[in-house]
Amino acid sequence: MLRLHGYWRSSACYRVRLALHLKGLAFEQVTYDLRTGAQNGSGYLALAPHGLVPALETEDGVILESPAILEWLEERFPAVPLLPPDPMARAAVRAMMALVTCDIHPLNNLRVLNTLRRDLGADEPSVQAWAAHWIGQGFTALEALVAQQGRGFAHGSQPSLADCCLLPQVYSAERFKVNLDRFPEIRAVTGRLRAMPAVMAAHPDRQPDADRP
Fold first, then answer.
1. Measured between alpha carbons, how far is 55 from 157 in angstroms, rounded to an integer?
2. Fewer CB within 10 A of the end CB, N or C, for the chain?
C-alpha cells in the first residue's frame, strides 16, 4: 500500500496525486493543514525531517520531494508510462519538470510567501504581484517549449510527468489571478488534461481535507 502524506492545496502533492491516478494506483492519504503548521508535529518530522509535503510511504521506506517520488513511481510502476522511451524526449520532459519544480514553484511556495508577509512586511497585493511575476516569467518559457514539443499535451501526444508538474502550477496561477490569455498552448493542454477522469480525481477540491463551502 502506498500512503501519501500531504495537503490538498499543495502543488507538490497535486503532482504526485496526478501521477498516482494516471497510473491507476491505489493509495491512502494522510493530511496536514499547512496553514496551522501541522506538518511540524513530531510524528510527521520523524518521516520527513524537513517538514515539507509530500512524503510517500511505501513498503520499502519513505520517499521525500515530489520529483524523487515521481521518478520512483515511473521506475516502480512502468506499465502506464509517464516518460517517453527516447532519451532526448525524456530529457525534454525532465527539463519541463525542472522549470516548474526548480524555477517557478519555489518562489511562490507558502513558506516563501509567509516570509514576505512576516519578515518583509509585504501586503497581500504585493505578495500576489510577486507570485504572478515569477509564474508569468516561467510560463513564458514553458509556452515556447509546449509550442515546440507538444502534440496535445506538454510534450508529445500522451500525458507525461511534465503535465503532472504543469497542471498544479496552472492551478496556482489561477489562485494568484495570473492572466493566462497570453499562454494559449498551456491553456489548451490544461483543458485537455482537466477533461480526463484520472486528472479530475486528483484535483485539490476533491481531496478529503479540502475546504468545504
1. 30
2. C
Q: Which of 123, 138, 204, 141 is nearest to 173 (CA)?
A: 138
- What's the CA gap between 171 and 199, in Å, rounded? 13
CA atoms of 174 and 197, how far apart (whole Å): 21
- Tell me: the pLDDT tens digits for 59-93? 999 999 999 999 999 999 999 999 999 999 999 99
- Placement of cell 500531504 in the chain: 6
Lowest mean pLDDT among 73-77, 109-113, 139-143, 197-201: 109-113
Give the chain's mean pLDDT. 96
pTM over 0.85: yes
CATH topology of domain 2-80: Glutaredoxin (3.40.30)
Yes or no: say if 53 and 13 are a contact pair by the CB < 8 Å rule.
Answer: yes
* CATH value of 87-198 in 3.20.20.70, 1.10.10.60, 3.40.50.280, 1.20.1050.10: 1.20.1050.10
